[in-house]
Design goal:
Number of helices: 5
Keywords: Signal
InterPro entries: Redoxin, Thioredoxin-like_sf, Thioredoxin_domain, Thioredoxin_ResA/DsbE_sf
Organism: Mucilaginibacter lutimaris
CATH class of the largest domain: Alpha Beta
Pfam family, one: Redoxin
Protein name: TlpA disulfide reductase family protein
Order of helices and strands: HEEEEEEEEEEEEEEEEEEEEEHEHEHEEH
Shape: globular
CATH architecture of the largest domain: 3-Layer(aba) Sandwich
Length: 410
């Protein structure tokens, strides 16, 4: 009997050790790949680490390391919840491999993508890229789409060896931190920020021309693109894309904050203040970059007489769902200024309806600058985030000078 008990104890201990081993992700670098509907891989890298017995990972895109702490492993199952964008991974682990799905929870449906990952792989596209004679460093005029759907953007790339980082800037924002390489006569770039997955490929015809470009976004988004080197390429003035309708000088709205309390621009806290109104959504990556900046901006300027209000336009009109997503956003960035749930969706037509003084809303984010008299002075469309380098620093300099000027007015 004693032998049986001892054998049983040893067997249970062995099973426990196996379960623990299966419930721990290998630490170090991984290569993950999201699979599009057209069977293309959107690769990215992430690093798994352990802190006080708790595992977490950092999604890596160029200089950005996006921290994810909600990682749960049970047996051979792994559940990873993104801190933003209402998305998650549901995976199975086998040795140093993961497989399963990445799921985006939209307002009215879920969108799953197949996903695989392998431990111990630090490269993104190629372990050893094919030798190349090309260098894409510099500024490019890039055209996406064809015919009436053509959209001119600005590409900014930096190539070190065969590694390439950079982004594309559009009138409504940028594609954030892209990373990839030039291999032979081809360019490869990708990004995954926890909520949005992008893949760009193109043929490097020469050092001044990119042709046959393909762009894959998420599960099924596809487009074509080309680019030519143009160090003078620039976008339209971001302050010229939206305006007030004739006869309007002020903005007027009342929406509920995350606690259900109505907040209006006519409230006493905004009187005789410079007010920044941020049109945003928890689903919007450029809005996240702007929010990260706006939190620090608010710390700097709120004591001098500036207030900020976030107007949230979510994927759903359901207040409780929007409240949950925005609470995650508020906690992630430690936002101290009010975020209001408008009850309108992120459809740009719906957004414009909620603010009838505006001619239109071109994109997210849109930032409205109001002076101490309550008059709208500027409307800025889009946001060039830290992935855009000098564009980001130029915006900050310009925006804060405008703030200083408005604060100086009597």
């Amino acid at each position: 009997m004693i032998k049986k008990i001892l054998f049983g104890a040893v067997f249970v201990a062995a099973l426990t050790q196996i379960t623990i081993a299966q419930s721990t992700l290998k630490t170090g670098m991984w290569r993950g790949a999201l699979i599009t509907k057209s069977a293309n891989q959107i690769p990215f890298n992430f690093e798994v680490s352990s802190t006080n017995g708790e595992q977490q990972l950092a999604i890596i895109n160029a200089t950005e390391h996006f921290k994810v702490t909600d990682v749960i492993a049970k047996g051979d199952s792994v559940f990873i919840k993104m801190p933003l964008f209402d998305s998650e991974f549901r995976l199975k682990q086998s040795g140093g491999n993961l497989s399963g799905q990445y799921i985006r929870h939209l307002g009215d449906r879920d969108v799953p993508m197949d996903f695989t990952a392998t431990a111990g792989i630090p490269w993104r596209f190629f372990k050893i890229p094919a030798k190349t004679n090309y260098n894409v460093t510099g500024r490019w005029s890039a055209v996406f789409g064809e015919g009436n759907d053509r959209d001119t953007t600005v590409g900014e790339f930096k190539q070190t060896g065969q590694k390439v980082t950079g982004t594309f800037l559009t009138t409504t924002g940028d594609y954030r931190f892209l990373e990839g390489s030039v291999s032979g006569d081809s360019l490869y770039l990708s990004c995954f920020d926890g909520g949005h997955a992008f893949l760009f490929t193109a043929k490097v015809s020469d050092n001044n021309t990119l042709t046959g470009g393909k762009f894959f976004s998420g599960l099924s988004g596809k487009d074509v693109w080309t680019a030519v080197r143009n160090e003078n390429a620039k976008l339209p003035d971001a302050y010229s894309l939206s305006a007030l309708k004739p006869g309007y000088k002020k903005l007027d709205f009342t929406f509920k904050d995350l606690n259900g309390k109505p907040v209006s621009l006519t409230d006493a806290r905004f009187k005789n203040k410079v007010v920044i109104v941020q049109i945003m959504g928890s689903w919007c990556p450029n809005c996240m970059d702007e929010t990260a900046y706006m939190v620090n901006y608010y710390k700097k300027y709120q004591p001098r007489g500036v207030e900020v209000i976030g107007l949230a336009y979510e994927r759903t009109t359901d207040f409780s769902k929007s409240q949950k997503a925005l609470a995650q956003l508020k906690n992630r960035f430690e936002i101290k200024y009010p975020i209001l749930i408008t009850g309108y969706t992120s459809n740009k037509v719906e957004t414009a309806k909620s603010l009838p003084a505006l001619t239109k809303v071109v994109g997210f984010p849109t930032t409205i600058i109001i002076d101490k008299k309550g008059d709208v002075r500027k409307i800025h469309t889009g946001f060039s985030g830290p992935g855009t380098g000098e564009y980001y620093t130029e915006f900050i300099s310009e925006f804060e000078k405008l703030t200083d000027d408005l604060l100086g007015e009597k």
